[in-house]
Amino acid sequence: MRIAVTGASGLIGSALVRSLVTDGHDVVTLVRRPPDGPGEVRWDPAAGTVDTGGLAGCEAVVHLAGAGVGDRRWTEARKKVLRDSRVLGTAAIARAAASLAPAPRVLLCGSAIGYYGDTGDDWVDEDSPAGQGFLADLVQEWEAAADPARAAGIRTVCARTGLVVARNGGAWGRLFPIFQAGLGGRLGDGRQFWSFIALHDEIAALRYALDTPALSGPVNLTAPEPLTNREVTAAMGRVLHRPTLATVPASVLRLALGEFAGDVLGSQRVRPRRLLEAGFTFAHPGIDAAIAAALSEV
């Protein structure tokens, strides 16, 4: 299959591309610089332009590009960057996919469980309403930006990803050195639920969504049993054989992270109902296995 991918240099995108290429798929990556060869296609998400000629023959488009949510404090300028990188980029890709003839069979867009906001101890799934706050509002706009593809009859999946357990990137990648140094500990009171997913399962779930016609709309990419931050902290110590006595008070997080601290301390107990109903099987459903798999990453 010929598949176009944005965000191919990121944690998830690079792992997905490796998986697809290993299995013999023809992968085209979208880049913002002059292409180096026929395997790259130029696009400019801010300007809303895509070289659609380079996408000819693509049966699937995977859109994962977007600025890092936790990379910097959320100033108003940074919020605009986060919004524009997702909403404008998704709209550009959706319009490009809709303009192709023949159109791709599927558009798979990255999304996030931030859609649900802080849900406390309550379970949520794909039918639950949107929450409140900047991230919840952003995800709603982000997913709606794919409407041109939906209107063109393209099966559109929004992969609402949780916290990806990976050693070499993402938020979890920053945790590993801290815990390996014996400085890890709970955040705040530690009672907030973390809906995690092993990187291996994230890639497998994305590929399952590409290949499963019954899946469309929002699909949660999280392990079946979320754990509290306190439980995750204990698991990190257990697998890494390190103490986890440190704690980071909520007040310190708010001082260091500003508005983003509310999402770090917030609780999201997410069930991947649609994946499970479609028959997807997790290779690393438990946190210990997910952490161990991350440690084995190349």
Which features does this protein show?
Rossmann fold, 11 helices, globular, alpha/beta, two-stranded parallel sheet, 298 residues, single chain, 39% helix, eight-stranded mixed sheet
Give a topology summary:
Blueprint: E1 2-6, H1 11-22, E2 26-31, E3 40-44, E4 49-50, E5 60-63, H2 76-99, E6 106-112, E7 123-124, H3 134-144, H4 147-151, E8 155-161, E9 163-165, H5 170-180, E10 185-187, E11 193-194, E12 196-198, H6 199-211, E13 217-221, E14 227-228, H7 229-240, E15 246-248, H8 250-257, H9 261-265, E16 269-270, H10 273-277, H11 287-295
Parallel strand pairs: 1-2, 1-5, 2-3, 5-6, 6-8, 7-16, 8-13, 9-12, 10-15
Antiparallel strand pairs: 3-4, 11-14
Explain what the structure shows.
This protein has a single domain (2-295), classed as NAD(P)-binding Rossmann-like Domain (Rossmann fold, 3-Layer(aba) Sandwich). It is globular. It starts with a strand and ends with a helix. Strand 3 and strand 4 (49-50) form a beta hairpin. It is an alpha/beta fold. The strands form five sheets. The chain has an eight-stranded mixed β-sheet with strand order 4-3-2-1-5-6-8-13, sandwiched between helices. Strands 7-16 form a two-stranded parallel ribbon. Strands 9-12 form a two-stranded parallel sheet. The chain is 39% helix and 20% strand.
CATH class: Alpha Beta
The first-to-last residue Cα distance is 26 Å
Arithmetic mean of pLDDT? 94
Look at the helices and sheets and give the structural class: alpha/beta
Shape: globular
The domain tally reads: 1
Can you identify the CATH superfamily?
A: NAD(P)-binding Rossmann-like Domain
